[in-house]
Amino acid sequence: MEIPSSLLSLSLGLLFSFVLATSADVYENFVQCLTTHSQNPTSISQVIYTPNNSSYTSVLEFSIRNLRFLSPDTPKPLVIITPLHESHIQVAIICARNHGLQIRTRSGGHDYEGLSYVSRVPFFILDLINLRSISIDVEYSTAWVQSGATLGELYYSIAEKSKTLAFPAGMCPTVGVGGLFSGGGYGRLHRKYGLAADNVIDARIINANGRILDRESMGEDLFWAIRGGAGGSFGVVIAWKIKLVPVPSTVTVFTVRRTLEQNATMLVHRWQYIANKIDNDLNIGVDLGRVNSSEGKQTIEASFHCLLLGGVDELLGLMQKNFPELGVVKEDCSEMSWIESIVYFGGFPSGSSLDVLRDRTPLTRNTFKAKSDYVKEPIPEIGLEGIWRMFYEEEAAIANIILTPYGGKMDEIPESETPFPHRVGTIYQVQQAVGWEEGVEASEKYIDWMRRLYSYMTPYVSNSPREAYVNYRDLDLGINNEKGKTSYEQANIWGAKYFKNNFKRLVHVKTMVDPTDFFRHEQSIPPVSSWWKKRGN
Q: Residue 315: in which H helix or E strand, if any?
């Protein structure tokens, strides 16, 4: 799609002419630019929220999922735009470039460090909440989904059309597809079908020049980069074409909990030896945390969560063959449809309607800090016992660790197939998180606890680099310069952890498609000007 002539002339005429101004001047000029150069000024004025607007605060806070970024001290956007049309995004990008504003694009608001709605420099939020249409093609097992849709809305729409089609993505229904697809995206089906990003077959993106591109016009390098290279670096992806996957009409689930007194340490240790080797149709994850035992004493509990693409008898046979120590019996298991398993793992009350998947309001909102790791060799029991000791500390009352098994299809996809590199050789992924209720002012001591746990884990996780999952964003790993350029060497400190050897190609793509670094944030992919100059530009 070509840029409207009014936008093209505006871009060429003003792109390099803006000068630094006060925030008030930038704000006023930006808003005037939006209304002046929109194809439909009345239409765009209805989706512009400024601090003077009575709805500004509610629109800003609706999709903030980490209460750590809801404090009075958190920087606020000069403007929020909730586009109804692609043209609204085009004009927003070009006006932002010409008036020196950074863009923060928000899909579902689940960025762990708030990068989709917080910036330390003047910025506006492009909130995609209104761009969430979903079109399912059952005959070809594909779908187009706009980036503002949530996983719950996508799953619900698939189930409306077919009981035997699904999509391998996350388990939290309020997560936006735009952010999740951009960074990889896993759930209960990744051992069978790979990540969400592995099953994207086309996309529509608006680049830094305001042009709308599909897979053919963007080229394979950029298409590669947006499927795992994380959001906010290359453009605004407005829609994704995805490949749906077959599932049986009946799946089986269980959640089995064991405390230390019920041999949890031995069971978690044993789980590590089978988690990535069992049948691809079977996914057994583990949640670890502190609980009160039936005797009222504090203990550590391991919750084993399972999904099998099949019936209960098949599941019992597989468990007896691979993990008899867990002692799963038929009464622990429930047969249901795939879409019902989404509700089950989403933590909704038993008997909840499928309609809960369309609710964009999460069950809870927390103040938290999280980190991630990848495990290549089983952690010995003595190592697990050290984690338990940390769970008994005061700050760990709302702490947990989630172990997600790999193997299966994840082993079959090469590291360089997409930017997401954590493939063969990984037994499981680790998410470490701590929450608190005292408010933002108490953050320091809990974040310190999280960092101490992360330090403790060092001998037991991947190294050179110590890998991390980009969708569990962690600014402790390193950040770009707030002002001025960021060198490749500086960015590679955190970039290699997220992307390993793929980081170099991501930088190359960034340099090709956004050499002026319009799309940037604390951990966006930086361009390298020397690479650009070598091309003679």
A: helix 312-322
Whether 392 is catalytic: no
Which residue type sits at 26? V
Of 300-304, 316-320, 361-365, 398-402, minimum mean pLDDT range: 361-365
- Dihedral over Cα of 417, 420, 425, 426: its sign: negative
pLDDT tens, position by position, 457-481: 999 999 999 999 999 999 999 999 9
Q: Is residue 72 within 8 Å of residue 118, measured between CB atoms?
A: no
Residue with tokens 């980069």: 225
Q: Report the candidate in 114, 128, 105 with the shortest Cα–Cα distance to residue 67.
A: 114
pLDDT tens digits for range 69-101: 999 999 999 999 999 999 999 999 999 999 999
- Of 472, 287, 439, give the one whose Cα is nearest residue 367: 439
Interacting residues of 171 by C-beta distance below 8 A, sequence separation 6+: 187, 188, 342, 345, 346
The answer to whether the pTM exceeds 0.90 is yes
What b-and-e string marks burial along 212-251, b requiring 16 or more CB atoms within 10 Å of the CB?
Answer: bbebeebeeebbbbbbbbbbbbbbbbbbbbbbbbebbebb
Q: What is the pLDDT of residue 23?
A: 64
Tokens of 188: 């209960």
Q: Report residue 455 as tokens.
A: 């330090």
Report the pLDDT value the prediction gives residue 533, as an integer from 0 to 100: 47
As given in the structure block, the two tokens for residue 3 are 């840029």
Instruction: Write the CA distances from 527 to 234, 423, 447, 508, integer angstroms.
Output: 10, 26, 31, 7
Contact (Cβ atoms closer than 8 angstroms) between residue 143 and residue 137? yes
Q: Active site residue: 27, 186, 472, 498, which one?
A: 472
- Among candidate residues 353, 347, 320, 350, the one with its CA nearest the CA of residue 334: 350
Q: Is the pLDDT of residue 10 over 90?
A: no
Residue pair 535/246 in contact (Cβ under 8 Å)? The answer is no
What whole-number distance in Å separates Cα of residue 228 and Cα of residue 114? 19
